[in-house]
Fold:
Amino acid sequence: MGVVSELKRRNVLRMAVLYVLAAWVIMQVAEVVIALASLPAWAGSLVLTVLAIGFPVALVISWFYEITPEGLALEKDVASEDSITHMTGRRMDFIVIALLAAAVILFAVHTWWPIAPTDKSVAVLAFENMSGDPEQEYFSDGISEELLNALAKIDDLRVISRSSSFSFKGKDLDVTTIAKELNVAHVLEGSVRRMGDSVRITAQLVDASSDSHLWSETFDRELTTQNIFAIQSDIAAAIANKLRATLSRQDQVDLRNVPTSSLDAYQSYWLGKQRMFSRASTSLEQAAEYFEQAIEVDPEFALAYVGLADTYMLLGDYAGMSLNEVLENAEPAIRKAMTLDDELAEAYVAQGAIRAKAGDYATAVAAFRRAIELDPSYSKAYHWYGDVLLTYLQQPDAALPLLKRAYTLDPVSPPLIVTVGQSLVGLGRFEEAMEYYQKALEIEPGYASTYYLIGSLHAYAYGRLDLGVRWSMESYARDPRYSFNLYGLGIYYLALGDDKEAEYWIDQALINGPDKVRPNIAAAFLNFRRGNETGVLEATDRLQAIAPGDNMTLYLLVASGRYREALRNAAEFFPELACDRQPEISRLNLMPAINVSLALEEMGSRECANRLLDKTLEQMRVMPRLGYLGYGFADVEVYARQNKKEQALIALRQAIDDGWRVFWWAQGERSPHTELLRDDPEFNAMMDEIRTEMATQLKRVRETEARDDSVRMPD
Structure:
């Protein structure tokens, strides 16, 4: 009896292994077939469900049945010499081996021979301006973009976003190369000729694999917005038909939608969009003017209000506009847009970004999710949602999948590519991040942000402040008003020990954005460095007014001995740090928790302070040390506060060896958390080591300035 049971167990075990391997192979084959045949996503779920249901059934059958030369038979009816044990055991083993081999082959195919792009993928290139007037370039671009938007509304198509498709404009590349770069099967190209009150639009759909035309047509119409959108609708429907894409009833409604009846308003809108895409500060100011012109001509034009709101937010990011000014202009614009059209995905994306800037993260997240629900192919929804998670909520792990999704829709957009890089920096994946930054640089050498971020990576991840200066100067040469540069240069020169040049760049940052947080933080650091107590107090009060929930405000309050104010600030902006319950520590409040703990300790709440310090160490274990979202020197401060000198010195050695440099003087010698270490010879020797290295790096900066006029402080 025991032998029989053992044989049955072996039979069931063989069946389990066989079934799992077979199921895995089936799922791999199904994935390929579903992609090639463009089947709906639920097809994969159906296959998985059937396989899951079949698993227990197969095990039960294997317990009661044997495999014989004649087929399946009940175990009790099978003679021992015909049983699976005697006749099919080896066959089963061979089957398992064969399936394993198939699994290896499928894995190799999946890894080294990726699935070809689906037949329902398309990129719309910028149509050629055939009007004979370079000033009409915006018009042909606008036609192309709106045609792209029309195709993107069709759920059954995958359409590459505007910034990626238009990046090939003016480049002498064949369709096959462009399609390969964008990972699409088809390319739509064409031309626009504007002749007085008439327009001719020619479009052709090209199969990238054979470089052959699948469809082409020429449209000659009177120049009106209704005719333009009718042409776009006809082209989109023809392409959908040619690619056998299913047009839902809503798709058909969306294709016939005309956002404005005014050609003048629409032309101003196109000009605004054209200026906005460069991200340069002067171009953004021009974009705002064009969107306002469009609104003046047609006050019911919802997309123009969205464009205006987007532009003001970008002016805050790139041109130093204060948060209050951004909100005062952007919020009314987006409210009006949503009043006019409450199912406009673009409006929800703008609303999400605005609410994030205002600190209302729950509403921001809800708005982004609604935008994705309304338009799953809108890359900016994934991009800006990921950016908010990364920048405001410091959740690079949650941001990266969203940004990667945006990247599949917009693979050659520099602003998106560098944001992917920033998320990788936040996860400590510095080499991967640099690859994305370099890719953005290759695509658009004039994009100032890329240069600054490369310099930031050198400074914050590798301790090379000299390279931080070098790359920031390159960025400054491309956009002198890019606010991050001015702040960054001030901070880098402070770390290098050149207060004079640090002051110059900090002053420039304050002139460019007097109410921005970063320039005022830099000014506070400068006063702190110089031991100017009056200046520190003034900077603290200013930050209290413009950024009361910022960690630098807490840091300065604590460093100035204003402990009660620090605790009042924390109670309002960081209630999760209160000790009447279990404190909640995350990336977002790690540094504030350390500063609050000192205020609590000085006010007599030592037990609560220790709980916060213990929690911060736990959080650091799941964070990178370096990068702009790393904890840097914080573990040294915590160990020092806990009177663990030996551990603090070990952590300091590790931080220096890893590349921690940017705030070495403020966190090391001047930190209110490191009093225990101030008189320690080993601590001071390590500070001198960094000081010597900074002098060497500053010398390299001077040598570079002598060789290159573009890398020099302006007079």
Q: What stands out?
A: Residues 81-87, 109-117 have pLDDT under 50 and may be disordered. The radius of gyration is 31 Å. Residues 2-37 form the longest helix (36 residues).
